[in-house]
Every structure is written in C-alpha cells, then in structure tokens.
Design a protein that fits this description.
28% helix, 260 residues, 7 helices
Length: 260
C-alpha cells in the first residue's frame, strides 16, 4: 500500500517585538505545495524544529489534509530538522531530553497518535512552491497546538492520553501497534458507560503522593481494565491503565512532558 507522505520544511524566521513567525513550506503528492506561518513566543527554543512539529499537528488533525482521525499507519513524515526524528526515537525508547522541552510539547502527537509513521529527514528544497502557488497562508498560533492532544468524550468530558497509558493499554489488550491502540482506546471513551471506582484509602494516599494530585479511577462495568486519570485545569489526563491491581507499579513521570 502506498504511503501518504507529508513533507515540511521550516524555511525562514521573522522576529517581531513580542513574538516570532516561522514560515513552513509543506507538500503532499507531487503538485500540492503550500505554506503556513507558525507564531511563537520569543522564548521558544529551536523554533524552526518546533514549527515543523506544529505544522504536522495542524495539517493532520486540524486541516485534515488526508482524512479525519488520521493516525500514523501508512503515513510518512519528512522533516528538515533531525531533532524531531531524534525526539520520536527517544520517546519510543523511554528516554527524555529536558534540554528541548518545547519540542516535546509541540511534537507530542508524533510519538503517540502518529507513532507508527515512518519518519525521514531531508534537506531538499527543490520542491518549494513558487510565489504564484502560494495564495492564502494560514497563521497558526503555536500555543494552541502545544502539549498533549485532547479528545472530547461524552462520558468524561475532555481527556488527554499519555504515551505510557497507551503502552499499558496495548499490553493489557494485546493491540498490535500504536495505531490500533489509539483508535481502540478512543472508541472506548467516546462510547459506552464508564463508572468511577472508589479507591481504598491506603491506595488513594499512595496515588496522591505519586501524581501530586488526587487521582480518579474509572472502568466500564463489563471490562476489568481500570483507567487512572489526574485532573488538570480543563481536562482529565489518563496516566496509566491497569487490569486488577490498583497499586500496580507505575513508571510514568507526569512531570516530564505533561505540565500543561
């Protein structure tokens, strides 16, 4: 099966008094070549790599240039900045890099929802659109596409899913890849009844110390999986999934990527 290929290239940066703008060229197929501008605060580290990550988020999940609810299956992403490929590799190997936290924040879906995508790095500029091809250039606010991706559900409101939770779900359910895991776990939360489980006081205190906030545990009545959420300002963050043992060892560190 042919891959859907999306190529992005952060080509220029313009600084203003209170923000900066990065022009990103993008291409799909042979003839679809366009541009978007991504705005950042002046404090953003490595804004060009971050702009390519934001462009991917915007084009795939907001503009839906391929189809709605796209995942990484049969998808190839081509960047000009090797830092993004390194970020995705580190996330897959459970390594962290606090030196470029911005990139992890902007690129979160690349190692969750689009984790199955093939990633390449290319410095080729020969495909850049000519001026006549660039008609309307959207301006994307990077701050609106930063941090973990959020999902609207009927039963729990707005939720977000960490990579660790996806990995644990895959282990318990036997899903074959991150693409299947993402679709499966989304389907579970968007439909069907789910109930909150009261934790024993000892376990509650343990979880409170572990996550720094009071956790919530939810499950579907006809399924043994338990879902541990931490409340954030405007959403619930799914941090792990366990089967029966509510005190299962959790290696996820919520302070690493998810201070949002």
């Amino acid at each position: 099966m042919a891959l859907d290929t999306l190529t992005v290239y952060a080509a220029s940066k313009t600084e203003h008094s209170d923000h900066l703008v990065v022009r990103v060229y993008w291409m799909t197929g042979k003839n679809r070549r366009k541009a978007i501008d991504v705005s950042f605060p002046l404090s953003c580290h490595d804004c060009q790599a971050a702009a390519e990550a934001v462009a991917i988020r915007y084009l795939l999940s907001e503009a839906n240039i391929f189809n709605v609810n796209r995942t990484g299956l049969n998808l190839k992403l081509v960047f000009s900045k090797g830092a993004i490929k390194k970020m995705a590799k580190n996330a897959a190997n459970r390594k962290s890099s606090l030196n470029n936290r911005d990139l992890y924040e902007y690129g979160y879906p690349i190692y969750t929802r689009y984790a199955e995508a093939q990633i390449e790095v290319s410095k080729d500029k020969s495909w850049f659109p000519i001026q006549e091809e660039i008609t309307e250039v959207p301006v994307v606010n990077s701050q609106e596409l930063k941090g973990i991706e959020k999902i609207d559900t009927d039963s729990l409101g707005v939720i977000a899913i960490t990579r660790h939770a996806m990995e644990k779900y895959g282990v318990h359910c036997g899903t074959i890849d991150m693409n299947t895991t993402w679709k499966n776990i989304n389907r579970r939360f968007k439909s069907g009844k789910i109930e909150q489980i009261e934790l024993p006081s000892k376990v509650f205190v343990h979880k409170l110390k572990k996550y720094g906030s009071a956790p919530e545990v939810w499950k579907h009545p006809d399924n043994p999986l338990h879902y541990v959420f931490c409340n954030r300002t405007n959403h619930k963050l799914l941090v792990t999934v366990f089967n029966k043992d509510p005190d299962e060892l959790v290696t996820f560190n919520p302070s690493l990527y998810n201070k949002i």
